[in-house]
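Re: beginner question about structure tokens

> Can someone show what the tokenized structure looks like for a real chain? I only ever see the sequence side.

Sure, here's an example I had lying around. Input first:
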Amino acid sequence: MHTITLMAVDPFVDSLYRWSDVSGVLLMGMIGGTIARQRGYDIVGYFFIALISALGGGMIRDVLISRGTVAAMSQPEYLILAFTGALIARFVFFKGRTWELLQAHGDAVVSALWAGTGTVKAISYGLPLLPCIMMGVFTATGGSMIRDIVTGRVPAVFGDNQPTVIPAVACAGVVVACHSLDLLVWGMVAGPVVSRLLFLTGYWGGWRLRP
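And the corresponding structure tokens:
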């Protein structure tokens, strides 16, 4: 049996956490659904890819933290918003320049938000510094990584054209630093902003990490 050492979290931080987490679920449901639709998957494959995209990162985080039931299974709004995002993508076909902008900016926003929420959840359970940062990165990249593997693509986090990991690390670092200064609310705002700016700068600037 695990001993839960959940730390007290400011109600405003908790509200930011919830809003950021569920907003990311909706956006990633749309992106995952659009990718599945473009590949011509049947309805089962379509919803599977959308749900994995929307919920995969948070499920990896919750399983690794191993404190209670996985949020996506215990809180119905996660599944509802994942299905809603999938349905939006089912009836609104994004393509061309619109799709390129949606995927780039959507991934940037979701990665930034989830890097922050993953780090905050780890902090709330009293995890050490490095695991907190790891939980931020896994939350930000887990869903898209599983989606890419399932659809037969090399995960973008492994060095394609979407610099996700470094922005997620930067966000997690900002959140942890602000928490150490008793400024977690500011970290929840500043971390995702820094992550999103790094992501978009790297994406449009064609940054690559060399081996």
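Each token stands for a local structural state, so reading them left to right follows the chain. The radius of gyration is 16 Å.
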